[in-house]
Amino acid sequence: MVDLGRIAATMGGEVSGNTVAFPTPGHSKRDRGTVATLDPNAPDGLLVHSFNGGDPLAIKDELRARGMLPERERGEGWRLAGTYEYADETGTLLYRTVRKEMPGGRKRFVAQRRLGKGWANGLADTKRVLYRFPELLAADPNAPVYLVEGERKADKLAGWGFPATAIAFGAKGWHPRHRYAEALAGRTVVILPDNDDPGREFAQTVCAAIEAAGGTAHIVELPGLPPKGDVIDWIGSADELRALTQSVLNRPSANSRVELVRGDALQIEPVDWLWPGWLAAGKLHILAGRPGTGKTTIALALAAAITSGGTWPDGSPAGKGSVVIWSGEDDPADTLAPRLWVAGADMARVHIVRGVSDGQGGLRGFDPAGDTAGLSTALAQVPDVRLLIIDPLVSAVAGDSHKNAEVRRGLQPLVDIAHMRKCALLGISHFTKGTLGSDPLDRVTGSLAFGALARLVMVAAKAEAKDGEQTQRLLARAKSNIGPDGGGFIYDLRQDELQGFRGVVATRVQWGAALDGTARELLAGVEAQGEEANERRGAANWLRDLLADGPLPAREVKRHADEAGHAWRTVQRAMQTAGVVSERGGFGKPAAWRLGDSRAKIAPDRLCGATGATDRPG
């Protein structure tokens, strides 16, 4: 039951029958511009009417806030969702906005200016100020200020410990005459737009105004927002926002300026090597090669050496630390973990990126091109991270991986993380097809910026096994900006069964002798053999198909080989692999090639001549 007497006593009015007259909020004590009448059919049992411009709903909300009306039940219409007060630099309260909501998501804002001890609807010519302005003035002037479209969003950021502000009426409230931008002169401002076109237009307008007023502005779009979403909907954390902001602030802005440092003010530091000459803390490394060379297995072998405090391929000791691994190609349970285990890794120091939590029990795939802020936060929780593996590295580039600018833009956040966490960053990449014999740096897939941005590039290669011989593999150092380049190691890939895991077999690296020479020289010898073997196998398959219907004169075989694009010398060498024999047809008759049988000698003792004829074995 509504108590009219209590309303009169609290609001300063008088009761007459079933009505009470009292001052409209913001008016003088003598005012009686608002009349409230008991009405069982009205919401809350009270019908409110204002004769001097007051908002009846706002007046009822005022009564409700003072405990004279019950809290509105859901579904009963507009309800008070928040009151946000604006004060000037002295802390003097100037005005407020009242947020009201309807079930279903509808909302509206009412602005009220301070008038005496009360409130009057509308702001009229009241001086406009930024929300939470006194707090901004008291904050560290070097700390970035976060500007959002609404007060509730600013309050969330302030709760995270960030200097945050907004303006009345959000995107619709910005106007040059209010001089908001001037209040941010000299400050670094981070604008977090809503995920819609009006939000992005607002961000661009505000950014330009702040820059013109002498501030520095950056637009940071929060990853993973739903359409029309904002920072309230964002599932990220304060640390993720801090890291995301830092990555954006590191990019040059319109007001950025070049800072110089004198050489005698620099403190010279040595390179922090994990593996001297091969892996350095805080630097980007690339390991590239053709498919099947075992690049990922090599990376996991290096990770195992770090986690176990084992030895490097050259026999030197590896300092113990943790590793973080993301692989977009291999399953952690049946591939990564078994390979790490068989390599002797301390699995308690291995951390594999599973995905990104949505905060509600869901998990989505990790995107190295957009989830770097979350990755930085995760790395901060891991003690002594010494190595971060990204496989494949090209996944970190959201744009065109063949454009230098987009590659540098995509990789820079990961490089910044490695520098900040003082861990080696190792990215796995491939060789571009058709680049055999080229400079190894030019063979790395994508833009030349991959090889240019990396401080050290390693390449892996293998030679296909010849008959009865073992496959030869090598790891070479193709580039180093921080140490010697060239040299490498022979290695082999072995299959071992995991002890305690019956039937689980994994691949591991077995390191061999050290090698001298440039990467181009080392790869040339190995890959030439491998290419020759591939060509020989292809020619052998072609020979079998050609002779499947019966023997052909050697001259006809050569003619068909020329037409098919097979070098004649390669075809001759493929005879043994294909099981082909060459027989002289008798006096004056040309030699013929045919498929042999299991009892026949199927290859000549020496290379054939131009006709492919040999003396038939007796």
What features would you describe in this structure?
It is elongated, with a radius of gyration of 38 Å. The chain contains 16 helices and 28 strands. α9 packs parallel to α10 (404-421). It is of the alpha/beta class. The protein is 28% helix and 24% strand. The longest helix is centred in the C-terminal third of the chain and has 28 residues, at 519-546. α10 (404-421) links the parallel β20 and β21. A nine-stranded mixed beta sheet has the order 17-16-20-21-15-22-23-24-25, sandwiched between helices.
Key words describing this protein structure:
single chain; 618 residues; alpha/beta; nine-stranded mixed sheet; four-stranded antiparallel sheet; 16 helices; disordered C terminus
Brief description of this entry?
The chain is an alpha/beta fold.
What is the secondary structure topology, with strand pairs?
Blueprint: H1 4-11, E1 14-16, E2 19-22, E3 34-38, E4 46-50, H2 56-65, E5 79-87, E6 93-101, E7 107-115, E8 118-121, H3 133-138, E9 145-147, H4 151-159, E10 164-165, E11 188-191, H5 197-212, E12 216-219, H6 238-249, E13 273-275, E14 279-280, E15 284-289, H7 295-308, E16 322-327, H8 332-342, E17 350-352, E18 356-357, E19 363-364, H9 372-380, E20 385-391, H10 404-421, E21 424-430, H11 440-443, H12 449-453, E22 456-463, E23 472-480, E24 488-497, E25 505-515, H13 519-546, E26 552-553, H14 554-564, H15 568-573, H16 575-578, E27 580-583, E28 592-595
Parallel strand pairs: 9-10, 9-11, 11-12, 15-21, 15-22, 16-17, 16-20, 20-21
Antiparallel strand pairs: 1-2, 2-3, 3-4, 5-6, 6-7, 7-8, 13-14, 18-19, 22-23, 23-24, 24-25, 26-28, 27-28
